[in-house]
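wait is this the right file?? whatever heres the structure
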C-alpha cells in the first residue's frame, strides 16, 4: 500500500485554504481584481522610476 500521508496533508491544507477564501468572500474581505492590478501597476511604475512606493491604505 503506498504512503499517502504527504498527499493527505496537502489535501487538508488545500481544503483549509479554500475554506478561508470562501469565508473571506462571504465576509466581503475581498477587492475587485481590477483594483488590485491598478495598485500593482502604480507600485511597480513608481519603483521603475526610482520612487518609493506608497504604503497600502489602512484596511487594505
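ok assuming it is, sequence goes like this
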Amino acid at each position: 500500500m503506498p504512503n499517502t500521508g504527504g498527499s493527505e496533508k496537502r489535501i487538508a491544507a488545500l481544503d483549509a485554504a479554500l475554506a478561508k477564501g470562501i469565508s473571506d468572500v462571504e465576509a466581503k474581505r475581498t477587492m475587485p481584481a481590477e483594483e488590485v492590478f491598478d495598485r500593482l501597476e502604480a507600485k511597480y511604475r513608481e519603483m521603475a522610476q526610482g520612487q518609493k512606493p506608497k504604503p497600502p491604505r489602512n484596511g487594505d
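The mean pLDDT is 88. so i think its the right one actually
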